[in-house]
UniProtKB/TrEMBL annotation, chain A:
<keyword id="KW-0472">Membrane</keyword>
<dbReference type="InterPro" id="IPR002541">
    <property type="entry name" value="Cyt_c_assembly"/>
</dbReference>
<keyword id="KW-1133">Transmembrane helix</keyword>
<feature type="transmembrane region" description="Helical">
    <location>
        <begin position="96"/>
        <end position="117"/>
    </location>
</feature>
<feature type="transmembrane region" description="Helical">
    <location>
        <begin position="21"/>
        <end position="44"/>
    </location>
</feature>
<protein>
    <recommendedName>
        <fullName>Heme exporter protein C</fullName>
    </recommendedName>
</protein>
<comment type="similarity">
    <text>Belongs to the CcmC/CycZ/HelC family.</text>
</comment>
<feature type="transmembrane region" description="Helical">
    <location>
        <begin position="201"/>
        <end position="222"/>
    </location>
</feature>
<keyword id="KW-0201">Cytochrome c-type biogenesis</keyword>
Automatic annotation (TrEMBL), chain C:
<keyword id="KW-0812">Transmembrane</keyword>
<keyword id="KW-0813">Transport</keyword>
<keyword id="KW-1133">Transmembrane helix</keyword>
<keyword id="KW-0472">Membrane</keyword>
<dbReference type="InterPro" id="IPR007078">
    <property type="entry name" value="Haem_export_protD_CcmD"/>
</dbReference>
<keyword id="KW-1003">Cell membrane</keyword>
<protein>
    <recommendedName>
        <fullName>Heme exporter protein D</fullName>
    </recommendedName>
</protein>
<feature type="transmembrane region" description="Helical">
    <location>
        <begin position="15"/>
        <end position="36"/>
    </location>
</feature>
<dbReference type="Pfam" id="PF04995">
    <property type="entry name" value="CcmD"/>
</dbReference>
Length: 249, 247, 71
C-alpha cells in the first residue's frame, strides 16, 4: 500500500507515466467529441416537442456532469493532500479547478440559452440551474482563496479545507434548493424528466459524456504536468527533459 | 516484559500527573468563552454594530420598494433573514482578527486542550453577541414590516437556530481569511454560497408559519444543520487557523 | 441525417441562434483549455532549457539544492 502511494505521489513517476497515457487521452477524447457532436447535431432525430433546440443537450449535460465530477475529484485530492501531504494531489486539485469552473459556466450558459426556446426566458430559478450557479460561486471562491495566499503551501491547504467543506455542503445546498423550488413554484420546469430517450438520441449523448470525461482528464493531467515543471524547474530530471526536447505531448 | 509494563505504568502515571495539573476541557472552554464575552462587552459600540446594520438594512427596503404593508409582509420573512445573514457576515471578520493580530491565537492553539473546543468557545461568544441579539430584536423589525403576529415566535426561533449555524460555518471562512490582508470581500465570496441552505430553510420556515403550515419537520432540519455544523465546523476552523498562523 | 441540406443544418430549423452559441461556448472552453495547456508546456520547457543554459555559463552555483522538496 505505502510504496504504491509514494510512487504515485512522486512527480517524476507521474510525469513519466502520464506522458505515455496522455496522447491516448487527447486522441480518443477529441475523437469521441467530434463523433458525438456530428452525430448529435446532424444525425440524431429532432425532439418531437422541442425540435432541433434539444440538441443543446449534447453539450449541456456533459458539461454539467463533468463540472460535478470535477468537484468530487478535487475533494478526493484535497483529502489525500491534507491527510498524506502528497503535493501531487494538491497540484491535481489546483489544475482541475479552473476547468471545473469553466464547465459549470458552460452548463449554465447553455442552460440559459436552452431556456429561451423551451421556457421562453433566459433564466428560471430552477433547482438545477440555481444549484449549478452556487457551485460556480464555490469554484470561484476556492480559486480566489488559493490565489490570495502569499505562500503556496498556505494557499494549497486553505483551498483543500474549503473544498472539503464545500463537498459536505453541496448535497445540503442541492437538497435545500430543491425544497425551496417546490415551495415557491407550483409546477417546476424540468429538463431531465422527458419521455425515455430513444437510442438514436441517447447514444450520441453517451459518447459526448465519455469524450468530455476523457478531455477533462487529459487537460487536468496536462495542467498538473505543467505545475510540476513550474514548481520544480531545477530538478535534474526536469532539466534533462528540457534538454532532450522530448516534450511528450 | 514485566519491566516494560512497569515503565509503561510509570509513564502513564507521569502523564496523568501532568494532565491533572492542567486545566481540563471544560475549564479551557469556559475560560475562553468568558474572556471573549468580556472583551466583546468592553467594546459596546462594536457590540451594537450588527444590530444597527440589521435595522438599517430592513429600513432601506420599504424605502426602496414601497410603503405597502401587504407587499412588505409578503417579503418580510426573506428580507429579515437576508438582513440578519448579512449582519452576521459583517461581524465575522472580527471573529479571530484581534486575537490573530496580537498573538493570542497562537497561544490559544498551543494550549493543551484540543483546538476545536477552544475555537468552539470563541464561536459561542460570537453567537452570544451577534446572533442572539439579532434574533431577540427581530420581532421588533417584523412588526415594522407588518409580519403577522403569530409568526413572530417562529421568526425568533429560526433565527436563534440559524444564526448559530451561520456563526459556526462562518468561523471556517473567517479562519481561512484571517491571515490575509484584504480578507473581507473574499470572506463573503467563500461563505455566502455555504449560507444558502440556512437562508432557504430559515426564511422558508417563517413563510410557512405565516401561512399556518405545520413546521416541526423544518425546524428539525434546521436543528440537524446546526448539529452537523456543531460537529464539523470547530475542527475545520481550527485546522484553518493553524494554516493561517503558519502561512 | 436529420436535415435535407447543409443550409438546413446551419439553420437548425430556426434554432440556430440557440444551438450554435451553446456548442461554441462549451466546446470552445474545452478546446481553449487543451490548447493553452499544451502551449504552456512548451513554454515552460523552453524556459527551463534557458535556465539550464544560463546556469551552465556560471557553473559554480547549484540550484538543485534549493529545490522544493517534493513528496
Amino acid at each position: 500500500m505505502w510504496p504504491i502511494i509514494h510512487k504515485l505521489g512522486s512527480p517524476k513517476w507521474f510525469y513519466t507515466m502520464s506522458g505515455r497515457w496522455l496522447p491516448f487521452l487527447w486522441g480518443i477524447g477529441a475523437l469521441l467529441i467530434t463523433v458525438g457532436s456530428l452525430w448529435g447535431l446532424a444525425f440524431a432525430p429532432p425532439d418531437y416537442q422541442q425540435g432541433d433546440s434539444f440538441r443543446i443537450i449534447y453539450v449541456h449535460v456533459p458539461a454539467a456532469i463533468v463540472a460535478q465530477s470535477c468537484f468530487a475529484m478535487m475533494a478526493l485530492c484535497s483529502l489525500i493532500f491534507l491527510v498524506w501531504r502528497i503535493k501531487l494531489a494538491d497540484m491535481a486539485a489546483g489544475a482541475a479547478a479552473p476547468l471545473g469552473a469553466a464547465m459549470t459556466f458552460g452548463a449554465l450558459f447553455s442552460g440559459a440559452i436552452w431556456g429561451v426556446p423551451t421556457w421562453g426566458t433566459w433564466w428560471v430559478w430552477d433547482a438545477r440551474l440555481t444549484s449549478m450557479l452556487l457551485l460556480l460561486f464555490i469554484y470561484l471562491g476556492i480559486m480566489a482563496l488559493r490565489g490570495a495566499f502569499a505562500s503556496r503551501d498556505g494557499g494549497a491547504r486553505a483551498a483543500a479545507i474549503l473544498t472539503l467543506v464545500g463537498v459536505i455542503n453541496l448535497p445540503i445546498i442541492k437538497y435545500s434548493v430543491v425544497w425551496w423550488n417546490t415551495l415557491h413554484q407550483g409546477a417546476t420546469f424540468s429538463i431531465t424528466e422527458k419521455p425515455a430517450m430513444p437510442m438514436s438520441m441517447w447514444l450520441p449523448l453517451l459518447i459526448m459524456v465519455l469524450g468530455f470525461y476523457l478531455l477533462f482528464a487529459a487537460v487536468t493531467v496536462a495542467r498538473t504536468r505543467n505545475e510540476i515543471i513550474r514548481r520544480q524547474p531545477s530538478a535534474r530530471w526536469v532539466r534533462a527533459l528540457a534538454k532532450g526536447g522530448r516534450h511528450g505531448l | 516484559m514485566v519491566r516494560g509494563a512497569c515503565t509503561l505504568t510509570a509513564e502513564r502515571a507521569d502523564t496523568d500527573r501532568v494532565l491533572d495539573a492542567l486545566p481540563g476541557l471544560w475549564q479551557g472552554f469556559s475560560a475562553t468563552l468568558i474572556r471573549d464575552c468580556r472583551l466583546r462587552f468592553r467594546r459596546r459600540s462594536e457590540l451594537a454594530n450588527p444590530l444597527i446594520f440589521f435595522a438599517l438594512v430592513v429600513t432601506l427596503f420599504p424605502l426602496g420598494l414601497a410603503p405597502d404593508s401587504t407587499l412588505l409582509s409578503g417579503i418580510a420573512p426573506g428580507l429579515l433573514w437576508v438582513a440578519a445573514l448579512l449582519a452576521v457576515l459583517l461581524s465575522l471578520d472580527g471573529l479571530f482578527r484581534d486575537d490573530f493580530d496580537d498573538g493570542t491565537l497562537e497561544q490559544l492553539l498551543l494550549a493543551p486542550q484540543p483546538a476545536g473546543v477552544l475555537v468552539l468557545a470563541k464561536i459561542v461568544a460570537h453567537w452570544l453577541t451577534t446572533g442572539l441579539p439579532l434574533a431577540l430584536a427581530s420581532p421588533l423589525l417584523g412588526i415594522m414590516l407588518s409580519l403577522p403576529g403569530h409568526s413572530m415566535g417562529i421568526l425568533m426561533s429560526t433565527l436563534l437556530l440559524g444564526s448559530a449555524t451561520l456563526s459556526l460555518v462562518g468561523a471556517i471562512g473567517a479562519a481561512l481569511t484571517v491571515g490575509l490582508r484584504r480578507g473581507g470581500v473574499l470572506l463573503s465570496l467563500l461563505i455566502l454560497p455555504l449560507y444558502t441552505p440556512v437562508l432557504i430553510f430559515g426564511a422558508g420556515t417563517v413563510r410557512l408559519a405565516v401561512e399556518g403550515a405545520p413546521l416541526a419537520p423544518w425546524l428539525a432540519l434546521m436543528g440537524a444543520m446546526l448539529a452537523l455544523s456543531l460537529l464539523a465546523a470547530p475542527w475545520a476552523a481550527a485546522a484553518a487557523l493553524k494554516l493561517s498562523l503558519d502561512g | 441525417m436529420a436535415f435535407d441540406s447543409l443550409a438546413d443544418f446551419w439553420a437548425m430549423n430556426g434554432y440556430a441562434a440557440y444551438v450554435w452559441p451553446a456548442f461554441i461556448v462549451v466546446l470552445g472552453a474545452l478546446v481553449t483549455f487543451a490548447l493553452v495547456s499544451v502551449i504552456e508546456q512548451r513554454r515552460l520547457l523552453r524556459h527551463v532549457a534557458a535556465l539550464e543554459r544560463r546556469e551552465a555559463r556560471r557553473p559554480a552555483r547549484s540550484t538543485t539544492a534549493t529545490d522544493e522538496e517534493m513528496s
